[in-house]
Amino acid sequence: MPWPAWIPLGLATALAATVLTAPAAAQAATTPGAVLDPAHGSVSWQSPAYAKGTGGGTESCPDAGADPDNKVCDRFDLTVSVPDGYWDDNPEGGVPLSVTWEKPSDDFDLYVYDDHGRQVASSAGTADPEATVIPRASGTYHVLVVPYDVHDNSFTGTAYLPATTDVGDLTSFSGGDGTYTIGAGRLTARADFLTGGQLRLQADPSGSLSDPAGTAIVRRQPAVERHTSSFDAGDYYGIRSPQAVLRVYKKPLRFGLYRPDNRTRIWQEDKPLRWSTGGMRQSLTRGADEQFFGGGEQNGSFSHRGQTMYVSNSFDWDEGGYNNSQPFYLSSAGYGVFRNTFAPGVYTFGTPVTTGQQERRLDAYYFLGDAKQVIGKYTALTGKPFMPPVYGLEPGDSDCYLHNANRGERHTLDALKVADGYTEHQMPLGWMLVNDGYGCGYENLEQTAKGLEDHHARLGLWTQDGIDKLADQVRAGQRVAKLDVAWVGNGYKFALDACDAAKKGIEDNSDARGFVWLPVSWAGAQRCGVLWSGDQKLSWDYLRWQIPTYAGATMSGIAYNTGDVGSIYRHDPKMYTRDLQWKAFLPAIMTMDGWASDLTTGKPADQQPWLDGEPYTSVNRTYLQLKERLLPYMYTLSAEAAKTGVGAVRPLWLEYPDDPGTLTDQAKYEFLSGPDFLVAPVYQGSDTRDGIYLPKGTWTDYRTGRTYRGPTTINGYHAPLDTLPLFVREGAIVPMWPKGTTSWQTRDRHELDWDLYPAAHGTSRYTLYEDDGVTRDFGKGAAATQRVSMRADGSGTTVSVGASKGDYAGKADSRAYRFTVHGDPAPRQVLLDGRLLPASAWSYDAGTHVTTVTTPGLSLDRGFTVRLVDER
């Protein structure tokens, strides 16, 4: 059954047949309405028939006074009157509300507002029914239903108060060899211990277990761990596996997971499972210092202790939205949980921790380990992050060029004029979407693709009107596909089907890697697409809340998450540049053109990074070229993500989990790009950045070379427009392409630079990953790695570069190296494999405290050593 299907079939039938009489006050009002209270458990209403749709959102609906008969949009007032605390332990967390229509090809969109006019819920995809939940509903709500794309159709609206039932005492227990069956009255449960420290726990009050998600999310079911045994401890049955003990308490039935010693708690239910009309929740004891992360993309946050987190199909693109949410969370207690469902959920990380999904069943996978191990196991289950083409890590540009209502009549080939601008201004460009806009088609596709290739860019197309055209489009040169909210409808399972199909469509018709973007998704999307946080308006707040959003998404295995540079709808030169600076340290970025207006003048404003003139053009060029130079570093992180599930953009806590400072509000608005770069964006209209938190270790200011000893907080950091506060970890070994590189295709393949930050003690190690960058041959082993180590001692620094092991198409036989080694003192001499390098081959800059060493071309078949001998 397609999502959302949280209303049981019997209940849906009953609701459709039940229409409550509105109270007298409501009858007298212009807008019809009804009451939900303990005496009135459900309500439904029938809309007028609409001859045609509005083709727009809520802005297309006139005021109620101008639409008294709801002929344009339908309005219904719903008053919810429940006792205090009604929602405190309710699996559904609010009033479920849905609209259903007769013609599935049509589309009604659903919005809910409180008495203050604030939108509190919505469902605006193409699903039938459109369904949402009014969270913790109490008071009067105004339901607005927009007939977006309708042809002589009406709908039935339904809402109900969820009633609850708790699990009773254990009535049966049996099993072995890793699988155990548990009964408690009508409820049937099963525990499957899986290899690698994993547990699947299912429960259903219907008495039979089901799996409506099937193979849509879980791609590979782990093998059962058969080395288990059970024992009777009196109050509970224990099931012992090599990694954990599951306690099955008898009166009432509850579960608890413990370490193998059966004393150290991992998680423990404080109350039995509770189910409701259309939901089920689990309630857990919260640890004194336990922290919680995950939930996919949660706009504006990465740490959720003390917070309520929603996972569902949301179209709130701003702070507090969750359009790319996932039913997964990770705990600092050493476990993570994935709910195998397409049903919406509400997770409250208070005391206790309650996690509820809007379906009358539990299907949860529990993963054991530290945060990175849990992310790895979760993505092994739902799909590891895809390996992008190298041009996918270069900037992208999107606009509609054919019949653009916002910018006047243009043609697809006009996109090449924009590509000319990138080339002229020496700014990298990896790909372009040339039909990005509603109703925007394309023409001259092959010529456009060829013209973009001449600029070292790839052709992308928006697929709102169908992915069945991909075969022909890919053969014509398409290599990037962008999905939209149209793919959230029936049969697409939160766009997962479309994401998988679009990636497959590119790969089935070319030797390229599929590269897909989508703004609304679900668990598993990391395996096939780049997620972006939707359509926003520019403000300093827009810059601020995105920072924890993308770092937090990594905690759910989302390796590629981003937002439009400068937003889609508004433009300001300073904000745009500030936004571009820090997004240069995200793996994927895109500029959206054709929709924005200038914040000051209100006039249309395109958003290519050179259009604002100086000083903005030069600053934007600097950071885009720096992003390009760092592609070997970012590409290696992509290869690691494809293996481990851990993406490049990380909250500080992920690398420093024992440091409470990483959970403060200050650390919330900075992130790590890989383990080595700490990025503290300027998100206010100021030249000063306060509250920069640096964890334990020595950190080097990337711009000035000044070092700081952490943990510490920097206030008053001077950051004029051209300065992004950026710090590099002691011990970092960073591969870079040569200065001036603007494309992966035109880079000098016979030179590789290494930016080095020696640690005072110990040895640093790094392994560079390389392949051809575009084909899928890497999956057959066509790739190379090169190991580098760095060690400082009392007399100097030694850099050891290993041979490049492996082969791929286009691999060079040899290359020169340029090392930039940070730190004092200046070397007295520099040796290459024990032989003195001439003075012309190296230099020391006393202002930046950097020694630069260049080598001649060296064979990639053998390693070598560079030794900097100190003056002392």
Automatic annotation (TrEMBL):
<dbReference type="GO" id="GO:0004553">
    <property type="term" value="F:hydrolase activity, hydrolyzing O-glycosyl compounds"/>
</dbReference>
<dbReference type="GO" id="GO:0030246">
    <property type="term" value="F:carbohydrate binding"/>
</dbReference>
<comment type="similarity">
    <text>Belongs to the glycosyl hydrolase 31 family.</text>
</comment>
<keyword id="KW-0326">Glycosidase</keyword>
<dbReference type="Pfam" id="PF13802">
    <property type="entry name" value="Gal_mutarotas_2"/>
</dbReference>
<dbReference type="GO" id="GO:0005975">
    <property type="term" value="P:carbohydrate metabolic process"/>
</dbReference>
<keyword id="KW-0732">Signal</keyword>
<dbReference type="InterPro" id="IPR011013">
    <property type="entry name" value="Gal_mutarotase_sf_dom"/>
</dbReference>
<feature type="signal peptide">
    <location>
        <begin position="1"/>
        <end position="28"/>
    </location>
</feature>
<dbReference type="InterPro" id="IPR048395">
    <property type="entry name" value="Glyco_hydro_31_C"/>
</dbReference>
<keyword id="KW-0378">Hydrolase</keyword>
<protein>
    <recommendedName>
        <fullName>DUF5110 domain-containing protein</fullName>
    </recommendedName>
</protein>
<feature type="region of interest" description="Disordered">
    <location>
        <begin position="47"/>
        <end position="66"/>
    </location>
</feature>
<feature type="domain" description="Glycosyl hydrolase family 31 C-terminal">
    <location>
        <begin position="648"/>
        <end position="734"/>
    </location>
</feature>
<feature type="domain" description="Glycoside hydrolase family 31 N-terminal">
    <location>
        <begin position="190"/>
        <end position="344"/>
    </location>
</feature>
<feature type="domain" description="DUF5110">
    <location>
        <begin position="751"/>
        <end position="823"/>
    </location>
</feature>
<dbReference type="Pfam" id="PF21365">
    <property type="entry name" value="Glyco_hydro_31_3rd"/>
</dbReference>
<dbReference type="Pfam" id="PF01055">
    <property type="entry name" value="Glyco_hydro_31_2nd"/>
</dbReference>
<dbReference type="InterPro" id="IPR000322">
    <property type="entry name" value="Glyco_hydro_31_TIM"/>
</dbReference>
<dbReference type="InterPro" id="IPR013780">
    <property type="entry name" value="Glyco_hydro_b"/>
</dbReference>
<dbReference type="InterPro" id="IPR025887">
    <property type="entry name" value="Glyco_hydro_31_N_dom"/>
</dbReference>
<dbReference type="Pfam" id="PF17137">
    <property type="entry name" value="DUF5110"/>
</dbReference>
<dbReference type="InterPro" id="IPR017853">
    <property type="entry name" value="GH"/>
</dbReference>
<dbReference type="InterPro" id="IPR033403">
    <property type="entry name" value="DUF5110"/>
</dbReference>
<feature type="domain" description="Glycoside hydrolase family 31 TIM barrel">
    <location>
        <begin position="501"/>
        <end position="637"/>
    </location>
</feature>
